[in-house]
Amino acid sequence: MSIVSETEMKEFFQRLIDSVAELSTQASKVDGLVEQVQRLSERLNNVEQENHNLHSQVADANNTVARMDSEINILRIQIENERAVNQSLRDTIVQRDAGVQSLEQSFRQEQDSHKITTSERDDARQKVNELERVINEANDRVAQLSSDRDNWRNKADDLDREATELRQRLNRVQAVLQPLQAVAEVA
Q1: How far is residue 127 CA from its own chain's centroid?
Q2: For the stretch 30-65, what's the b/e string if a residue is b when 16 or more beta carbons lie within 10 angstroms of its beta carbon?
Q3: Taking the domains of the chain in order of start, what are their residue ranges?
Q4: Distance between CA 14 and CA 18 in Å, rounded?
Q5: What is the distance between the terminal CA atoms of the chain, rounded to a whole angstrom?
Q6: For residue 99, is pLDDT > 60?
Q7: What is the pTM of this model?
Q8: pLDDT in tens, 27-85
Q9: How far apart are CA 2 and CA 77, in angstroms?
Q10: What is the SS3 assignment for 2?
């Protein structure tokens, strides 16, 4: 058995002190990294919730667009019906005008009928104009909703990318922390 010299003992204890100091420094770094990981994890959860909310808003916008499309189709059908009524009224006017030429008495009767028909035609035109205005407003609204939907989709895509980047950063930080935590546990 060999005797350990005082110098060897001092060197041994100095190495031991240096190792303890190094482990203490690493432990404080690990604590800081754990806190950063927790903040990143909270941020990721917030971004994922915001992303979920945006997806929900996009779905709502899509539902509104579908509803507006349905309303536009109904309005188009109504316009076609009104145009058919309008054409029918025009045909009636033509028939009445032919009857006016045949008899004076019929002329008076047909003139009254013509006034009524003209009034109905004007009402029909007014309805057609109103329906066309409504369709134009609906088309403008659909265009706005489509633009809003596209904006929300872009925001959702940006948030998806940010969430992916944050997950990757979190994974890298956790990969760095795992060996440091193992060293801290050994000490």
Answers
A1: 36
A2: beebeeebeebeeebeebeeebeebeebbeebeeeb
A3: 6-186
A4: 6
A5: 30
A6: no
A7: 0.32
A8: 677 777 777 778 878 888 888 898 889 888 988 988 998 898 888 899 889 888 888 88
A9: 107
A10: coil
Structure tokens at 74: 């109904």
**Closest CA relative to residue 37, chosen from 166, 165, 160, 162:** 166
Of 168, 158, 165, the C-alpha closest to 55 is 158
Judge whether 127 and 75 are in contact, CB under 8 Å.
no
Give percent above pLDDT 70 in the chain. 87
**Mean of the per-residue pLDDT values for the chain?**
83
What's the pLDDT score for residue 185?
67
Assign domain 6-186 to a CATH class. mainly alpha
DSSP track, 15-38: HHHHHHHHHHHHHHHHHHHHHHHH
Is residue 75 within 8 Å of residue 92, measured between CB atoms? no
Could you tell me the sign of the dihedral formed by the alpha carbons of 68, 71, 76, 79, in that order? Answer: negative
* C-alpha 152 chain-centroid distance: 3
Q: For the chain, what is the radius of gyration of the CA atoms? A: 41
Question: Which amino acid does the sequence have at 108?
Answer: R
Is residue 132 within 8 Å of 107, Cβ to Cβ?
Answer: no
**One-letter amino acid identity for 22?**
E
Percentage of the chain surpassing pLDDT 90? 22
Tell me how long the chain is: 187
At 123, list the tokens.
């009402």
